[in-house]
Amino acid sequence: MMEALRPYILSFIPLFVAVDAIGNIPIFFSLVEGSSKAQKNKIIFDAVITAMVIAVIFMFLGTWVFSLLGITIPDFQIAGGALLFVIAVRLLLPGAQKSVLTSSHDKDMGVFPLGTPLITGPAVLTTTLMMMNSFGAAVTLVSLILNMFFVWITLVKTDTIMKVFGPSGTRAFSKIMYILLAAIAVMMIRHGIIGAFLK
């Protein structure tokens, strides 16, 4: 049983770290402050659907784009790992935060910046392709759907989560996720180097 679930668990965890659902809560909370329940629900729906569609499209077309450009999977592992590491380090620096480029009353905030780049950004796109290469399309798609479902739950329950953890608690959890993301980036670079030069 555990052996059958192992690929799903191993693909779910890196995507969970990259999506950073908990870390997005303070940003979402500030963006929707003053909005009605119906408005919040529409923003959440738009954000999750946008994030899911972008990730799935990239998951299936990314490899084709690579072959068109002559990019190999090890190339992408090294470049993607380096990009993830830079993103993780920048987010770990004191005062660093994901930039929010829209007003709190923008009707399209569910699409931008929530759907992309906050939920599905470079980290998620890179990790999705890596998981697809390692575990296949079916496992990656299931893990992606489960992660987006978790995102939906956390956004719906934002008020409750903020009361339980508080702003400091959610920031602390987010920092731990960024450290894990940096470790995953190093692993990707290592696998890329092995695939490109040592096989």
Structural account:
The protein is mostly helical and 199 residues long. It has one domain. Helices cover 81% and strands 0% of the residues. It contains 8 helices and no strands. It has helices at residues 2-19, 25-31, 37-69, 73-92, 110-119, 122-135, 137-156, 158-197.
Topology:
Blueprint: H1 2-19, H2 25-31, H3 37-69, H4 73-92, H5 110-119, H6 122-135, H7 137-156, H8 158-197
Share of β-strand residues: under 5%
Series of H and E elements: HHHHHHHH
| Number of separate structural domains | 1
How many strand segments? 0
**Which structural class do the helices and strands define?**
mainly alpha
What's the shape? globular
Q: Give the assembly state of these chains.
A: single chain
Helix content: over 70%
The whole-number mean of residue pLDDT values reads 83
Segments where pLDDT lies below 50 for 5+ residues? 98-105
Can you give keywords for this protein?
mainly alpha; 81% helix; globular
Summarize this entry quickly.
The chain has 199 residues and is mainly α. It has helices spanning 2-19, 25-31, 37-69, 73-92, 110-119, 122-135, 137-156, 158-197. It has eight helices and no strands.
